[in-house]
Amino acid sequence: MSSAILDRDVYIVECVRTPIARGYNNGALHNIQPVDLLAMTLDELMKRSGVDKALVEDVIAGVVSPVKEQGANIPRFAALKAGFPKHVPGVQLNRMCGSGQQAIHFAAQAIAAGSMDIAIGCGVEMMSVVAMGSDWQMDNPDFVKGFDFKVLHQGVSSEMIAEKYKLTRDELDKFSGRSHELCDAATKAGHFKSQIMPIKVGDKLIDTDEGIRVPVDYSKMKKLKTPFKENGLITAANASQISDGAAAVLLCSGRKLKELGLRPRAKIVTCVVVGSDPEYMLLGPIPATQKALKNVGLNVDQIDHYEINEAFASVVLAWQKELKINPAKINPNGGAIAHGHPLGATGAILMTKMVNELERTGQRYSLQTMCIGFGQATATIIENCNFKPKSKL
């Protein structure tokens, strides 16, 4: 390990995700209930970790549309279905697209504060079962009046960001194509194999992300309509996909880690959340990244790779342009434009990808950040517990 284990340091012991499926009634996971998908994920997490389920002190889950099949405190029911003892509680939260990452943050913060030693941060979203926006009142004039800003659709904000940063349709489409190509290459190279729990659906074994499309047809992408602005730049091809999926991360204090003799995979270095302009609502990753780096005295070049949620290509490119981040370090295995964005789960999915990529490459630091509707963002920096500095000759 790169540093000594301290009692109140927070470590990722295990993480796992489902394959991400298309979030429609023909998607590979559509016939599974959200509570069952999360229960499967929690059970697999604990099996892989070797930790007794009875030691878990809370199951915190991100769910962005927490109604109907995804309501009623789904992590409590999922934990019980997964065989956790009745004394293990659960709670769901909605920080919109940052929900899965926020669930990890809340678990980490409880451990760092000394309130808990072992907790799970996770997320689930079955967009084929509970449609995005099911809990919104955006079409209610009484709900949206009285603010000192325009209550806009995220797609409109993404168009505004593209204009502000002078991005072109070609740049957005090429970044999107890159996402598919990198995701496809990572899948074929087996980079995702160990992090994905295969799921049997009927006589089929689902073990890969369903949204990846290669070869990339750029000519087809150019013909797509721009639904948020006439002759605009944002299309279905350069935005994240509607998806189904779940993921879970097991966090543990340094004290409990030593007591149980567990092997840590990554250390939580810092976690932050910020508010940002609610009209340019998707620019939050810029101040969130800056705050996370400042918290621990790192600069952008000291981060070995970044996972930024590809809600829209314009969000990633604006963030990269503003912070002058090396493009090669950004989403090296593709992102949500290719594999999809099951809203409440994506934060935990990206964390799972990030932990595995650090281990695969032997690099030290990774940073995850996510834009959030109406002007917020989350960011986390983690450190590879098995990082070995190169010896100086």
From TrEMBL:
Coiled coil: none
GO MF, any single term: acyltransferase activity, transferring groups other than amino-acyl groups
Start and end residues of each Thiolase C-terminal domain: 263-383
Keyword vocabulary terms for this entry: Acyltransferase, Transferase
Pfam family, one: Thiolase_N
Domain Thiolase N-terminal: 10-253
Record: active site: 97 (acyl-thioester intermediate), 341 (proton acceptor), 371 (proton acceptor)
SUPFAM superfamilies: Thiolase-like
InterPro entries in the record: Thiolase (IPR002155), Thiolase-like (IPR016039), Thiolase_C (IPR020617), Thiolase_CS (IPR020613), Thiolase_N (IPR020616)
Signal peptide: none
Similarity field: Belongs to the thiolase-like superfamily. Thiolase family.
The protein, known as: Uncharacterized protein
Organism: Heterostelium pallidum (strain ATCC 26659 / Pp 5 / PN500) (Cellular slime mold)
